[in-house]
Design a protein that fits this description.
Blueprint: H1 3-13, H2 18-35, H3 45-57, H4 69-91, E1 110-112, E2 121-122, H5 142-150, H6 155-167, E3 173-175, E4 179-181, E5 191-192, E6 197-201, E7 208-212, H7 217-229, H8 251-265, H9 273-285, H10 288-295, H11 300-307
Antiparallel strand pairs: 1-2, 3-4, 5-6, 6-7
Helix pairs in contact: 1-2, 2-4, 5-6, 6-7, 6-9, 9-10, 10-11
Length: about 300
């Protein structure tokens, strides 16, 4: 097995999402093609810097502005993980990368995570990272959010949007390629009636996160199960209604329905705004750390950013 294949196998063993596995593989393969005819053994920090400079400039793209900072940062992360894998692997077999430093430069380790059980120091920040422009989150007036939830076109969507508004969880998706997470990634077995809670998978790390749900949501769920879900042959809680009837509901279909309702009501809104709305309400009424726990953030600074409203 070649180096890239072994790296991909390691990512899968570590439980990385299919999206991460795919983008990291494509990124490393692009770097190796750029590097040819030189060998991976010849890679130094200077070589990495040259590659990132060219990659960021978008030398193979018809663009005046180059690649987005997030794209460059993702490529850096892929390369850092790849060379960390080579170093770890070769340390057990006296290979070419045994004892060498990672050629993707990093700064000193960052502060510890703020949540219980996540207090290990963060790894050093990648020095070649590009500054990503921060788009300030915008929330909805709570009364407008309630109106949007009530005016959805079907019971399923009323139940989903009400759940977003009551829990502040990510909308998420159910994807055969990228896995499931968030509210749209719920299975029937993730609904705990006895504890009046649902268990969602968090984005990225895929940790399970149990969230309590207020009493007004459960009648909506019961109505949806009785009148719209039928006996769909899937573990997914939410299923399609028309062309995708009986199959797991995907984000594009839900978002299109939500957007049509918002347009009909004359409201500029996206499903993700509900998360910011709930974050702001939680911070204002229960405090920052309660909001952090309910929203499932690893670091309290993320809660501050999400709850900030200009």
């Amino acid at each position: 097995m070649d180096d890239v294949g072994a790296f991909v196998e390691r990512l899968v063993m570590l439980g990385r999402s299919s999206y991460t596995v795919r983008t990291y593989r494509l990124g490393v393969e692009h770097f190796i093609r750029w590097l040819a005819p030189r060998s991976l053994d010849d890679v130094t920090r200077q070589v990495v810097g040259e590659y990132i400079s060219e990659f960021g400039a978008g030398a193979d793209l018809a663009t005046e502005h180059g690649r987005a900072p997030r794209t460059v940062n993702n490529r850096l992360a892929a390369m850092a993980a790849f060379f960390a894998f080579l170093i770890e692997r070769d340390s057990h077999r006296a290979g070419a990368w045994s004892g060498r430093d990672n050629p993707v430069p990093t700064g000193p380790p960052g502060p510890a995570h703020g949540m219980s059980g996540r207090d290990l120091p963060r790894r050093g920040r990648l020095e070649l990272r590009r500054r990503e422009p921060r788009v300030l989150a915008r929330d909805l007036d709570p009364s407008v959010a309630e109106h949007l939830a009530a005016e959805q076109v079907c019971v399923r969507d009323r139940a989903i949007v009400t759940l977003l508004l009551r829990t502040g969880q990510r909308v998420g998706d159910w994807s055969a390629e990228h896995g499931r997470h968030g509210v749209l990634g719920l299975r029937l077995s993730d609904v705990d009636r006895r504890r009046r809670a649902v268990t969602v998978l968090l984005k990225g790390a895929r940790d399970e996160h149990r969230v309590p749900v207020t009493g007004d949501w459960w009648p909506l769920l019961d109505e949806y199960l009785a009148t719209e879900r039928d006996q769909a042959d899937t573990s997914a809680l939410w299923v399609g209604r028309r062309q995708a009837k009986g199959r797991p509901l995907r984000y594009p279909a839900f978002e299109a329905s939500f957007r049509a309702t918002a347009a009909r009501l004359g409201v500029h809104a996206t499903p993700h705004m509900f998360r910011h709305t709930v974050a702001q309400l939680l911070v204002d009424t229960a405090g920052l750390h309660v909001a952090q726990q309910i929203l499932g953030h690893r670091n309290v600074s993320t809660t501050l950013e999400v709850s900030y409203s200009p």
